[in-house]
Amino acid sequence: MERGKMAEAESLETAAEHERILREIESTDTACIGPTLRSVYDGEEHGRFMEKLETRIRNHDREIEKMCNFHYQGFVDSITELLKVRGEAQKLKNQVTDTNRKLQHEGKELVIAMEELKQCRLQQRNISATVDKLMLCLPVLEMYSKLRDQMKTKRHYPALKTLEHLEHTYLPQVSHYRFCKVMVDNIPKLREEIKDVSMSDLKDFLESIRKHSDKIGETAMKQAQQQRNLDNIVLQQPRVGSKRKSKKDAYTVFDTEIESTSPKSEQDSGILDVEDEEDDEEVPGAQDLVDFSPVYRCLHIYSVLGARETFENYYRKQRRKQARLVLQPPSNMHETLDGYRKYFNQIVGFFVVEDHILHTTQGLVNRAYIDELWEMALSKTIAALRTHSSYCSDPNLVLDLKNLIVLFADTLQVYGFPVNQLFDMLLEIRDQYSETLLKKWGGIFRNILDSDNYSPIPVTTEEMYKKVVGQFPFQDIELEKQPFPKKFPFSEFVPKVYNQIKEFIYACLKFSEDLHLSSTEVDDMIRKSTNLLLTRTLSNALQNVIKRKNIGLTELVQIIINTTHLEKSCKYLEEFITNITNVLPETVHTTKLYGTTTFKDARHAAEEEIYTNLNQKIDQFLQLADYDWMTGDLGSKASDYLVDLIAFLRSTFAVFTHLPGKVAQTACMSACKHLATSLMQLLLEAEVRQLTLGALQQFNLDVRECEQFARSGPVPGFQEDTLQLAFIDLRQLLDLFIQWDWSTYLADYGQPNCKYLRVNPVTALTLLEKMKDTSRKNNMFAQFRKNERDKQKLIDTVAKQLRGLISSHHS
């Protein structure tokens, strides 16, 4: 039972599923029927489904057949009615065709008449429209004709205005005509033509101001010079109620105005009116030398055309190029002042024009652009001046250049350009000017020193005396009391050098003028330059004279006297500088003159040269010495060369009477010491291998002659026996050997009060060795000692003891 129920349930479920699939097949599109059929084949009841499908198809066929049978009679009736309508329609068509033929025949003439009327009305309308259009086109053609005439007569600014009216007022009314389109197409070309012509005028203007910059700058600098001269006159002769000219009055030639920045006409556009016309002697200004109207006209044209920025950029670019050309100095500018003047004139002219453009246009150039150009010009100008001025070796040209730079700076300062860097650069040129002055004065000093006779200045009249005193500050009451003729103690180079120092100070002062320096700065500059003149230039000149090979003792003595007097005159130079600068020497920052040091150094060098010269003369005499070191004869007088040497020294020291006592004493002591040293070297030199007692006796006579000279007091001021101490070493050595007092020497050696304190055992041993060699060859030894000891043994014993002293001294 249960199995039968389960089979029945499964059969019902399968039938329901087949029914559902059939409904999906009936309601689903053919493209989507695949999944439905697949579900049939996936099942196990395929045969039963096919049976149900066949049953369903037969049902649908029966329904279709029933519906066709139901509507068939209606279809037949409709066909019958349609056949009847076709016959009636054919009849109607025939009637319409006949009626149309009759109407066409009857209306043919009317159509012809109406066509003629239509053509007449069309012609009338066209004529009226043509008249109206011509009335609109005539003003356009008239304006275009006017435009062409203005272009031909080069009245470009009115032409531009006419073009604006034509484009914006007239052409829009007739824009659909072909000739108007041609005009519209030509308008950009006309504008470009106007721009090109005005640009050509601008280029001519730029070329004109390039050519006239030199003249404009020259005129501006003349104005500045005239104003400065006028200011100096006013400062020197002040008057009540007098008024100094303002900047605008003083330089009105360049500060001009125009009533409007837009031109009134082609002729008056850009023409400038000078404000001050009362001055009949007005120097021509920029507007008189250059016609500025092209730049104004071109500016307005480009402004109207909307290309003002393009014009401004072009103008500034071209002017920058011109500025670079102007700022490029010629290679030979440093050779003449005219080269510098032309260079400055071009720069001034350039910036005067730019300043004029700045004040007479609205924005073509601005202050920032001018300042940028000026910064470039200032740096390039300063660099060029530094380079070219360094080639200049003429102080007069440097001074003229400084005055020209000051005028250049003052001129540009009037127009508002900062010129502090130029004045700073002038301080650099001041150092160069000082160097050129030092070179020039170096030559002057050399000529003075070379041409001097190094003899006291003789004067025979009161006028000559006053002339010398007027040139050099010298006061000597005793000399004033002496009768004529008389002599100044110094030679001619003293007043000449003193006056040249003053001339140098004046030259330094000239450069400081108009540099806007304080009195303290001027004083400091002059003092520093003068110190360089004294310590370097004059000092070198004096040193060169002193070091000359052919300089004589007389010249050296005179140089010492001259430098002594120049040293005393330094205080007068201090006063001279104080008087011209009005700065007291007690001021805190005042530089002191180093003249005293300079002349002291020169005097000391001359003194050293005297000492050296004297020693050289002594050496020359000593070269004449011809001792016979092997002689056995005892001499009776000093050698001839030494007598001549002493005579030379006496005559030389007699000339030293005008020298300061210390100098003469030092020279005398130096000569005696050098003579004593040279004689000692002569006695001990290695070439003298043997000597005899006779030779020592002759040498002793020469030393006595020297001692006699020292005792005679060749130069006053020495204490007793002071000068003789120069020969003390020789004296004690010779006494030791001649007296053969070895026992005393050996016993007292090393004691502070010993008799032969100045005798060195090495020196004594050297000389003793020379005599020992002699004793071996001859029998003269008995003349030295009266005792009976063996000569050779005695010398050997003394020599041995001397060696013992030497070794003990070294240990």
Automatic annotation (TrEMBL):
Domain Exocyst complex component EXOC6/Sec15 N-terminal: 52-221
Cross-referenced InterPro entries: EXOC6/Sec15 (IPR007225), EXOC6/Sec15_C (IPR046361), EXOC6/Sec15_C_dom1 (IPR042045), EXOC6_Sec15_N (IPR048359), EXOC6PINT-1/Sec15/Tip20_C_dom2 (IPR042044)
Keywords: Coiled coil, Exocytosis, Transport
Pfam families linked: EXOC6_Sec15_N, Sec15_C
Region of interest (Disordered), residue spans: 258-280
Coiled-coil annotated spans: 82-109
This protein's record includes keyword Ribosomal protein: no
Residue ranges annotated for the Exocyst complex subunit EXOC6/Sec15 C-terminal domain, each copy included: 421-770
Function, as annotated: Component of the exocyst complex involved in the docking of exocytic vesicles with fusion sites on the plasma membrane.
Family membership: Belongs to the SEC15 family.
Name this protein carries in UniProt: Exocyst complex component
Taxonomic source organism: Ceratotherium simum simum
